């Protein structure tokens, strides 16, 4: 096996910062499926299937009606996924996506990739974007403020994904400094040019992930502009740019409903999806075509298979021990990381999120983890065993194990 990469080039100032103090080393040798260009010099595009005349060609020259039909044909070809892993920097990487897919996720976004760094730096490309054949349908998300650079980056990934997505929602200071994400909401002509450039030059459709404006009419006008510019799918995070803390501010599903009613392309709802009851209510209340979940999946990657943490069980007597817990999920995740290497900082972050409750009961185990400046799989597997030997049991629950939701969501069908 190749030696771990121990050095990476310094990151530009506007690069999203990593979540932990761990470095950018991959958790083991270079992952074969990360070096896409070397292994598939001319891979087929997923949507270049000539079986449908609606699919597989850039939107160039298509009138509005045809573009809408093409957007729906593509969405239907993908099986109209409803349960979707949201984009998360350093957190929606390949092994995590595969874990969520095993437990019911029907599609997933990559973390946001920086289009300029992606275009310029081979090491960034191979470390930050990895995929494999089970990792579909896939949205690859970029942040950008230059249409040509965005297009260059998008053309590298389009053979490996089903949508190229533009991040128009990042509210962080780093996005303000880099002039991307939600800060482009002040420059709608620039956003329009980003979408148009991709729609005219890619074989895969363009999607956008947006936040809402404080005024509903502004949000609607914005969404319609994106559709007219060639956006084929819109994910709406029902919070404004200033509503940064998702735990404190409830997402505005009414605004998502209004967007769904005002555009003709598929719309995904994002915000406040913590368990499957939320999924059903959100789809019903907004009329959206699917939902994205982020923070809750980090804690409970089996959410879309119907599992829920104790926090969301309440006094509901129909909930039962689901015979699965977060320690099981960590072990499954680690095995996927052994197979599909990612930087250790991502693994560290997931272990903390999934085992947060366990560490609250045994803080000394967390302290031991934090004291490791260099992680190994051996240490992490031992740590999980230690937690178990300490007698901790924090099950995930199923609301109604006889509903069939678990198996129907595909746990048994994943090959990853
Ligand atoms: C750790 C983390 C990283 C995130 N990174 C991204 C990102 O790369 N791109 C993006 O569009 N949104 C990103 N988000 C926002 C989520 O995709 C999502 O819009 C937000 O968390 C609201 O969904 P939730 O209520 O299910 O958490 C991130 C969120 C979290 C928690």
Overall strand count: 12
Spans where pLDDT lies below 50 across 5 or more residues: 1-21, 29-56, 401-416
Strand order in the largest sheet: 1-2-4-5-6-7-8-9
Indicate the mean pLDDT.
85
Roughly how much helix do the residues carry, as a percent range?
A: 40-55%
H/E element sequence: HHEHEEHHEHEHHEHEHEHEHEEHHHHHEH
Radius of gyration: 21 Å
* Domain tally: 2
Q: Which hetero compounds are present in the coordinates?
A: flavin mononucleotide
Q: So, CATH architecture of the largest domain?
A: Alpha-Beta Barrel
Strand % is 5-15%
CATH classification class of the largest domain: Alpha Beta
Structural shape: globular
Please, what is the CATH homologous superfamily of the largest domain?
Aldolase class I
Major sheet description: 8 strands, parallel, barrel
CATH topology of the largest domain: TIM Barrel
Structural class label:
alpha/beta
Give the count of helical stretches: 18
Alpha carbon gap, first and last residue: 21 Å
């Amino acid at each position: 096996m190749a030696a771990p990469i121990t050095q990476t080039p310094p990151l530009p100032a506007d690069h999203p910062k990593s979540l932990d103090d761990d470095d950018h080393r991959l958790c083991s040798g270079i992952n074969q499926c990360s070096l896409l260009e070397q292994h598939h010099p001319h891979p087929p595009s997923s949507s270049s299937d000539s079986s449908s005349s609606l699919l597989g060609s850039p939107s160039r020259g298509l009138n509005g009606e045809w573009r809408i039909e093409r957007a729906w044909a593509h969405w239907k070809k993908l099986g109209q996924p409803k349960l979707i892993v949201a984009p998360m920097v350093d957190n929606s990487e390949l092994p995590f996506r595969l874990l969520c897919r095993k437990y019911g996720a029907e599609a997933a976004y990559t973390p946001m990739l920086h289009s300029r760094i992606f275009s310029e730096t081979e090491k960034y490309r191979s470390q930050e974007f990895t995929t494999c054949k089970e990792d579909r349908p896939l949205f690859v998300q970029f942040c950008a403020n230059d249409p040509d650079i965005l297009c260059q980056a998008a053309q590298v990934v389009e053979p490996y994904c089903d949508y190229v997505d533009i991040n128009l929602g990042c509210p962080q200071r780093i996005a303000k400094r880099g002039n991307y994400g939600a800060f482009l909401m002040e420059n709608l002509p620039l956003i329009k040019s980003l979408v148009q450039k991709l729609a005219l030059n890619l074989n895969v459709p363009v999607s956008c992930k947006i936040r809402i404006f404080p005024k509903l009419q502004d949000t609607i006008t914005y969404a319609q502009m994106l559709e007219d510019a060639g956006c084929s799918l819109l994910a709406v995070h029902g919070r404004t740019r200033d509503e940064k803390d998702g735990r404190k501010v409830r997402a505005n599903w009414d605004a998502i409903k209004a967007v769904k009613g005002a555009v003709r392309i598929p719309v995904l709802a994002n915000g406040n999806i913590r368990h499957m009851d939320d999924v059903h209510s959100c789809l019903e209340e907004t009329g959206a075509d699917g939902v994205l979940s982020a923070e809750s999946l980090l804690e409970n990657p089996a959410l879309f298979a119907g599992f829920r943490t104790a926090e969301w069980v309440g006094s509901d007597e129909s909930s039962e021990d689901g015979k699965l817990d977060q320690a099981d999920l960590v072990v499954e995740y680690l095995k996927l990381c052994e197979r599909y290497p990612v930087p250790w900082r991502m693994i560290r972050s997931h272990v903390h999120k999934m085992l947060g409750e366990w560490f609250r009961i045994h803080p000394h185990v967390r302290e031991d983890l934090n004291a490791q400046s260099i992680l190994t799989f051996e240490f992490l597997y031992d740590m999980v065993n230690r937690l178990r030997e300490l007698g901790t049991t924090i099950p995930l629950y199923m609301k109604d194990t006889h509903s069939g939701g678990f198996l129907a969501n595909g746990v048994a069908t994943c090959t990853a």
